[in-house]
Amino acid sequence: MTSLSPAPRSRGLAVFATLLAIALLVAVAAVGESVRAGITTSPELSTFSIWVMVAGLALGALTLWAAVSALRHSFRSAREEAAGEVLASRASAAQSRQQSFVTFGLAFAIVIAFALIQLVLINDGNIQRTFLRGDLMASSALDIARAFIVNIRLAFISGVIVLVFGLVLAIARMIPGKAGAPVRFLAVAYIDLMRAVPAIIVLYLIGFGLPLTNLPLLSGLNAEWFAIMALSLTYSAYVAEVYRSGIASIHPSQWAASRSLGFSYLQTLRFFILPQAMRLVIPPMLSTFIALQKDTSLVNVIGTLDAFNQAKFYASSTFNLSSVTVVAILFVIITIPQTRFVDWMLERGASRRKGA
To answer: Burial, 158: exposed, middle or buried (Cβ in 10 Å; 0-12, 13-18, 19+)?
Structure first.
């Protein structure tokens, strides 16, 4: 009769987790008190540091509880093994190891979060006063939010242009046959060039170069349209590659079946290939448009009064960067929901493929 293997070792891991949790509590108390003692100019900030230390100690106690639970399961596993209950011993050992790893994860997260907050509070809260002054953030928030509408408008108009022009570039790059070779060459050259040149250089060349050319219609545009042109030219190259990857992922049999039924190349694209490819490229396309939204902050180099430029006016008048933090918060507010939406779409696509 084959005997069962003994339970995996868990005592050492549990002891280490317990010592780590104790060390975490001591470190939180010592560092928190040291930082609090260094805050002398703001009673409110000193009170906040106390609450941070209390929260850190509470989370540290939770970590210690998980470590003690791991140690308890480890001792139970040893008792069950001595009694010959191998299966029960293995289960207890697995629980002990799981609790130990939970302790490590909690400790790591607490250390990172606590260290970041203490970094803001250290040196008498100078970092907080430089980047996170509540009164300056409140006084500048309304004007910056109004200017942020410019960023949203630039992203939306550029996004529409990029969707259309990127698709044209992708189709041009994939035109088959010798007759399409010159078109393919031009499309590849454009895509490679615009992906190689930084967006801020394109913005600078268009924003300051076109007004100097005295070209009809173009030279008389305002700074917002120059920004839209630059962003559209740059991101259409990236979107073209996203389109191309989606089109190339469609099995060749789809092309062959459509062409055998008498459909032309463009009809095959329109009715068979693109509808399937679009579903595949939506998540990476959204990621590209998130990057486009963030790059609208670059338009300040050509004088567009966006949120970042508005924040710089406040920063230069107050010698403080809290207004720039407001811009960062606004971008976070509109970007994170989109990022989570992309993640949801990727998970939904993966679950559908598994179901199929």
So the answer is: buried
pTM: 0.80
Band of residue 24 on the pLDDT scale cut at 50, 70, 90: very high
| 18 pLDDT above the threshold of 80 | yes
* CA 12 to the chain's CA centroid: 38
Domain boundaries, the chain: 10-132, 135-355
Q: What is the pLDDT of residue 190?
A: 94
239 SS3 class: helix
Task: Report the C-alpha gap between 158 and 206 in whole angstroms.
Answer: 15
What residues contact residue 16 under an 8 Å CB cut-off, 6+ apart? Answer: 100
Q: Select the CATH number that applies to the domain covering 135-355 from these four: 1.10.3720.10, 3.40.50.2000, 3.40.50.1820, 3.90.550.10.
A: 1.10.3720.10
Q: Which two tokens stand for residue 68?
A: 């003690």
Secondary structure (3-state) at 198: coil
CA distance 84 to 88: 9
3-class DSSP state of 149: helix
Nearest Cα residue to 199 out of 331, 94, 294, 66:
294
Alpha-carbon torsion angle 128, 131, 137, 143, nearest 10: 180
28, two tokens: 């939180």
> In this structure, are residues 157 and 235 in contact, taking their beta carbons and an 8 Å threshold?
no
Place of tokens 């003994």: 6
Structure tokens given for 66: 């998980």
Per-residue model confidence (pLDDT) at position 1:
40
Counting Cα atoms < 13 Å in the Cβ hemisphere of 242 gives: 24
pLDDT of residue 356: 54
User: Does residue 124 come out as left (phi exceeding 0), alpha (psi in the -120 to 50 range) or beta?
Assistant: left
Question: For residue 24, what are the contacts with CB-CB under 8 A and spacing of at least 6?
Answer: 60, 63, 64, 107, 110, 111
Reading the block at residue 321, the tokens are 């960067």
Give the residue-averaged pLDDT of 304-311: 88
Q: What is the mean pLDDT of the chain?
A: 88
